[in-house]
Structures are given as C-alpha cells and as structure tokens.
Amino acid sequence: MSLINKLATDLSEADCFDDRDGRPWSTAYEHVISKRMMSEHPLAAIAEVRDTYQAASAPYRVLYDGQCEICQACVSWLKTLDRDKQTVCLTISEEILSALDSRLSLDSCLKQLHVVTPENEILVGWDAVACLARLFPSTRVIGSLGQWFPFRNVARSLYGYVARNRYFLSKCRGGACVVAKPEAVRRQARLATFWSCYTLGFFIRLPLVLWAGVKAGAQRASVFVQTYHKRIDLLSGKLTILFLNGVLPNSVPLLFGELFTTLLYDGIAIDPGSPKMRRSLERHLLRVKPEIIKIVATHAHEEHVGNLNWLSDFSRAPVYVSEMTGGFLTPFKTLPWVRALIIGQPPDLKQPYRLLGDTVETKSGQLRVIRTPGHSEDHVALYDAGEKLLFAGDAFMGSYFATPNPDVDSHKWLVSLERLLALDIEIMVEGHGHIYTLRADIPDFAGVVIRQDPKTAIREKLTYLRWLREQIVAGFEDRLPVRVIEATCFPWGNRSSWETCASDECIRLLSLGHFSRTELVRSFVRTNSDALPTVYEVRLSRSEEPPQPPVAS
Length: 553
Ligand SMILES: [Zn+2]
Prior knowledge:
Layout (H helix, E strand, L loop, with lengths): L2 H12 L13 H13 L1 H14 L4 E5 L4 H13 L5 E5 L2 H7 L5 H6 L2 E3 L5 E3 H9 L6 H6 L5 H19 L17 H41 L3 E4 L4 E6 L6 H5 L4 E6 L2 E3 L7 H11 L5 E3 L5 H4 L2 H8 L3 E3 L1 H7 L7 H6 L11 E2 L3 E3 L4 E6 L8 E5 L4 E5 L16 H12 L5 E4 L4 E3 L11 E2 L3 H24 L4 H8 L5 H5 L1 H10 L6 H6 L31
Parallel strand pairs: 1-2, 8-9, 9-10, 10-11, 15-16, 17-18
Antiparallel strand pairs: 1-3, 3-4, 5-6, 6-7, 7-8, 12-13, 13-14, 14-15, 16-17
The chain binds zinc ion.
C-alpha cells in the first residue's frame, strides 16, 4: 500500500474519533460534534482527500490533536497562512505516527505540537511553532525572533502553559470529559461545556472570520459593479439576462451577494423583478425591444413577481403562474416591513392570469414545467430539453447556501433536487444571476458564469443537504436545543463554517432573523405542507424544554 493510500485510510479513520481507550465519547454533544460532523461533512471529506494527496509531497508534516478545539483553531490559522501548500496537517493516531516516522510516540504527540521537516527532523512544541512561522511572510519575524534568547525561553514557557492547560480550556473534545459520567451530568453543565468550547474556537478564529468577511464583501462589490445595469446576450441572442437595480434593492447584492435578474428566453420573460426595480427593467426593455409572448413567474417571492401586472400591460403578453403561485398572489400577503422596504411590496396579481400546465410554448419550441418545492412550496423550474438548459429559479441557490428563509422545506428541496438531477443539463441559469456551465458557447463573465458542471453542482448540494439532514435528525433524537444543533451543523473545523460566518450573521442581523443559519435547522422540521411564504409554520420551542424529534418525511 502506498503512503498516500495508507494515509487516506488512516485519515478517514482518525477523524472519526473512535471510542478508543475507554474515552466516554458517547454523550450527545460529543457524538454529534465529533463523529458526525468532522468525518462525514462533504467539505471535511474534500479537505481530507486534498491533505492526503499533499502528504507525500508537502515538505512539512504537522501533527495535531483533532480532539482539541485549540489545536483545530491553530490548524485553521495555519491553512490560511499556508498559501503555497508547504504543510500538511494530520490528526494524531497510532497508525499515522507509525506510517510517518517510528520516532514519534502517541503520548508525546498528544502533549505538544510535532512537526516533521523535509529533512526528517522532528521539531516539538514552541520550536515547531517557530519553524512553521518562518515559512510565511506575515509571521516570519515572529518565527525568526522566536529562535533566540530571550524570546525563545519566554515563548517556550508560554507554549508549555497553554499545552498543559488546553484540556481545561477545550473540555468538549479534550480529556477533561473523562471525569464525568454522561448520564450523571446535568444538561446545564454539559451545555456550558459545549458552548465554552465552541466559543473558544470562534474567538481564536475571529480575526480569520473578519478577514474572510471583508474579502467576501469586496468580491460582492466587484460583481455588483460589473453587473450594474448590464445585460448579457447568450446563445446567439436566444437568452438575455437583464440585471435589475434599484436604490434600496442594491443593498442585497452588496450585502448578500444575490443579484436581481429578469430572463428573456425565446419570447418568454421569466421573473420580472419587484416594483423597486421597475425603472431598471423598463430601461432595459426600451433598449432591447424584445418580443415577449408570455410572462412566467417561478414562485411567489417578492423579487420575482412584483412587476407581473406592469410587464403584462407594457408588453401585452399574458401572465402564466402555477395554481399555487396564483393563490399566493391573490391577494399578496403583507410582507415583513424590512422586506417591503428594501425589495418592495408587490401588488395583487390582476385577473385574468393563466395557469401553467406541464409545458410552456416558446416562439420556437417549448419549456417543460417542473415542480420543485423546497425553496418555497409553489416553486417551478423550466427546462428546455433541446438546449439542455434549466431555468432553476431559486430551486438551487448554490451548493452550500446556509441562510434560508422561513419558507424553506429542506426535505422537499432534497426530493426536488433529485428530480432535477434526472435531467440532462448542460446550462443551469439561476434566479439570482448565476450560470453553471462548462459549455464553450457561454463566454466567461466573472462572478456570473461559474465553470462547473451543473449536475455536479446539484449533486454537491444534495450531499450537503443529506449530511445536514442526518446531523439535524441526530441532534433532535439526542434532544439537543436548536441552537446547539445549529452549532453542530457549522463546526469550526470546517473551513466554510468560519469563512461564511461573518456574511451569514450579517444576513441574520439585517433580515431581522428571517434569513439565518437557525432557519436552516428549522427547514428540516417543517410540518405544515400548506406553507405560505414568510409564514413561520413551525415555531420551535424557545423554552428550556428541548424540542421533540421531527416526524420523518
Ligand atoms: Zn425565492
């Protein structure tokens, strides 16, 4: 077995935190925190494979305690600093140590950091930290000073203090849990342990969280500027994407990254935006002068349906919606004030409107109408089999979308994604300005065209949602509070959890809690199938009593 294969096996096992050495890893938190999220999260799995492949070639091998929050947080820092992939981080296990170097012992590795250099020198504790620090420009000074008296002596004693006490600080995954029998520990005490550990992990990574937030903000601003009042003509003019803007709606692409669009495809106008984007839409239409024969809405969210009446008057084309969407639009419910203020309250849909059947005739062909509940109960996607083109509306929303709104039913979303996966798709156009395709006839457009096979993207989302479902069901079975389940869905050990943390919390704050990571947990326990947009069908207990397990669906 090659070293790479050996390490691949070892790594996948090592990250499972088995019940070895009689450690009581069986309490609810440890079970959910360690075993499930660290080993089965798709992102963790991808990272493991990447690390494994680097193991044979990366010059510096870093051995760390995967059960310690402090060690894991330091690894997050190391991976961020190490842009040139000079290091590979391996969690400690007997198998990995013996595969790497016979001089390494489990006991000494658990006590302090060990680094094996390209020359097979083993550095320990502060000397290992200083050696790693010298690898990167931003920490080189610290690493260089740290080799010499008196800095070296001070740093060694400081390092020794933290290393000796890290189990005290990082109880949840560390050895301190050994003292307590899980059944005998009261809920409050275990919660405090869990949160102290989770909070510690957050604060050690806080500068990384903030930096990732700033970087993501800059990227969103750049895409916003490039798409401001723009349009893209594709497929020899058969498909046109109109980017919509408006004074207050502009805050959404800048803060959340979702662009507003109207799609024109072969005589069909799809999702004509909200009243506050009407001037932008009108300006586009006066310039393009498209022939519109039908207007279709994918679902009844305000940024998709607010201009249906107006566009119908403007173009003299009839409006087509699904029966359920029609019901939601007549009358349109009153939006929460923050959404009404920013996006705009749509008017009630004017009669007569037409109902979508199984297909919609376009100028030169037809689109299949596919029911895709999940993002909202009434959602439909449109599919052109000839062009292998899917108009997904909001039925995709990126592979790792983590802040859904209260309409989302993730069980239904999973079924809808499986339905979409059965289609032959080469181009997937989303409702918020992203196109997934590998096709060469779709030109590059930074921040809009994503060079990924649409079906791979859908598969990734399915894997992520299935992992979340397991995680959340396990959490409810273990009778964990919702906030704890939420935390277990975003373990700091997964890079995406802290990288998107600043943006996700910003979204939670600005939407007054309507779009949040908490909604992601709730989205797996919807019980009422007659979901109305923005109505909270499920109000989970906010009292001390843990919520009941969801009914499987
Ligand atoms: Zn939507």
